[in-house]
Amino acid sequence: MNENGEVFSGGEIAVDGDRIIHVGPAGSTTGDFVAEKTTGGDKMVALPGFVNCHTHASMTLLRSYADDLPLMKWLQEMIWPFEDNMTSDDNYWGAMLCCVEMIMSGTTTFADMYMHMDRIAESVEKSGLRAVLSRGMIGIAPNGPQALEESKEFIKNYNGTAEGRIKCMFGPHAPYTCPPEFVQQAMEYAKELNVGIHIHLAETRGEFTDITEQYGKTPTQLMDSIGLFELPVLAAHCVHLDDKDIEILSTKKVGIAHNPESNMKLASGIAPVQKLIDAGAVVGLGTDGASSNNNLDMLEELRSASFLQKVSTEDATALPASAALGMATREGARVLGMEKEVGMLKPGYKADIILIDMDKPHLYPLHNPASHVAYAASSADIDTTIVNGQILMENRRLLTVDVDEICAKAQECADRLVKEAAGK
Ligand SMILES: [Zn+2]
Fold first, then answer.
1. The pLDDT value given to residue 30
2. Residue 222 is assigned to a structural domain of this protein
3. Could you tell me if residue 396 is inside a domain?
4. Count of structural domains within the chain
5. How far is the CA of 275 from the centre of ligand 1 (A)?
6. Residues near 133 by Cβ (< 8 Å), separated by ≥ 6?
7. Number of Cβ atoms within 10 Å of the Cβ of 365
8. From ligand 1's centre to the CA of 156, what distance in Å?
9. CB atoms within 10 A of CB 188
10. What pLDDT, in 10s, does the model give residues 118-156?
C-alpha cells in the first residue's frame, strides 16, 4: 500500500543493504538481483514504518505511576521527584523497554527528549531503531548552562552514528521553562553544529495565558520573535494557537508533533490539526512519554488523531484514514527533516518497512486496506518490522533484543525508584 492508500496486491519490495531498490508487482524485480532472504506472505500489507515524532523513551518506567492528575500537579508532585532519582542505568532500561514496545507496534523512527542521552543512544544502537535524540534542558534550573554544554558534547559525539540511524537536536524543554535568552543560546549552538531544535510549544492553556501576560506575545509568537523558526524546529503539541500562530507555524514550515492521547489524558485540549493542515502546516504524530498516554502505540495514536478532529469539528470528513496514516509515516518524516529518505516505500528510500497481518477476523472483509489499518487494526497485527534493511521483528519474534530480560530489568528499576520517591 502506498502513501495515498493505493494498494498493489501481490506486490514485492526489494532491499539492498539499508535501502529499498524496487517496489512493484510480484516478480517485477529485474536485473542481477537475487534475494538472500525473503519475508512476508499472503494477506500482509506493507507500509513505511511509523514515525513517532515526540516521546520520552525512559518514561516507560513511569507508566501508570501517576495517572488522572492535572499536568502541573502531575509534573511537580509525581514525575519530577521520581525523575530526580533516575540513574543512567534506569534511563537505559527504560529506553530499552520503549524500543521493544516500538518495534512490536511498528514504529521504526522516534524523536526523544530526555536525559542521560548517551544511554538512550546505546538502546537505539542495540535495538536497531532509528531516532532523533535531544537532551531535555530546563533553562530556569541551576544546571541550565551546564545542560547546554553537555548537549553540545552529546551532539558532537553522537550525531550521525549507528550507521546514520542516530540524529541529534538541541532540546530546550519549553518557553515556560526556558527564557528567550536561553533558547537563543541553544539556537546559536544549533546553527554552529547544523542541527535542529526540539521544544514543547503551546501545550496548555496555562502556558498560553502565562506567556502572553509575561511577554505580551503568545508562546508561538514569542518564539517567532527571537527567530527560532528560521531553524529546523520540531515543536511538540501546539494545542493552544490563535490564527496568527497557525499562520506562522504554517508559513515557516515548523515541524509539529501532534500528541492527541497525551493531550486528552492530561486534559490539555484539542490541537487544531485540520486547520493547521488546511493552512499548509507540517504535522506528524507522537505518543509523548508512556506516563501521559500510557503506551507508545502509533496505530492508537493515529486513530485518536482522526476521531478527535472529527468530533471536535463535528465533521466526519475531517482527517480521513489515509491522511492519518500519512501523518504517522510520510508527514512524520517531514517533521523530523527526514522526508528525502524515510516515510515512504520508494526506491532510494531507507528500508524502514512494516508488515501487517490482515488475516485476522477483525480485518475481514477487506473493503479498504487504509481504513482497516487506521480504524480496525491493532499493534498485535504487526508481524514484521524492518529498519535500515535489518529485520528487528519477524512473525512477532524479536531478533535484536531480549524481551524477558528487558521487562525484568525495567520492573526492578521502577520498583526501586518508587521506593526512593516515597523517601523509603
Ligand atoms: Zn513531551
1. 82
2. yes
3. no
4. 1
5. 22
6. 111, 112, 117, 120, 121, 124, 154, 158, 166, 167, 168, 169
7. 5
8. 24
9. 12
10. 999 999 999 999 999 999 999 999 999 999 999 999 999
Q: Residue 114's beta-bridge partner residues?
A: 135
Q: How far apart are CA 271 and CA 4, in angstroms?
A: 24
Question: pLDDT per residue over 341-400, tens digit each?
Answer: 999 999 999 999 999 999 999 999 999 999 999 999 999 999 999 999 999 999 999 999
Q: Which three cell numbers stand for residue 76?
A: 511537580
Structural domain including 96 reads 50-335
Query: Which positions ≥6 away from 236 have C-beta within 8 Å?
Result: 53, 54, 113, 198, 199, 200, 201, 203, 257, 259, 286, 288
Between CA 187 and CA 185 the distance in angstroms is 5
pLDDT value at residue 6: 55
Report how far residue 72's alpha carbon sits from residue 84's, in angstroms, rounded to the nearest whole number. 16
The confidence band for 115, taking pLDDT boundaries of 50, 70 and 90, is very high
Cell triple for 220 = 508561538
Read off the pLDDT of each residue in 312-337 and give the average, rounded to a whole number.
Answer: 97
Mean pLDDT, rounded, for 237-259: 98
Q: How far is the CA of 256 from the centre of ligand 1 (A)?
A: 12
CATH of the domain at 211: 3.20.20.140
CA–centroid distance, residue 112 to ligand 1 (Å): 9
CB-CB contact of 257 with 52 (8 Å): no
Contact 16, 33 (CB under 8 A): yes
* Cβ atoms 358, 372 nearer than 8 A: yes
CA of 128 to the centre of ligand 1 (A): 23
Residue 3 has pLDDT above 90, yes or no: no
Q: What is the pLDDT of residue 422?
A: 84
> What is the whole-number distance in angstroms between the Cα of residue 22 and the centre of ligand 1?
37
At 270-305, the pLDDT tens digits run: 999 999 999 999 999 999 999 999 999 999 999 999
Q: Angle CA(375)–CA(380)–CA(385) in degrees, nearest 5?
A: 100
- Is 61 a domain residue? yes
How far, in Å, from the CA of 174 to the mean position of ligand 1?
A: 9
Q: What is the pLDDT of residue 12?
A: 92
Distance 233 CA to ligand 1 centre (A): 15
Centroid of ligand 1 to alpha carbon of 202 (angstroms):
12
Is the pLDDT confidence value at 2 over 60? no
Q: Which of 156, 181, 180, 178 minimizes the C-alpha distance to 166?
A: 156
For residue 140, what are the contacts with CB-CB under 8 A and spacing of at least 6? Answer: 177, 178, 179, 182
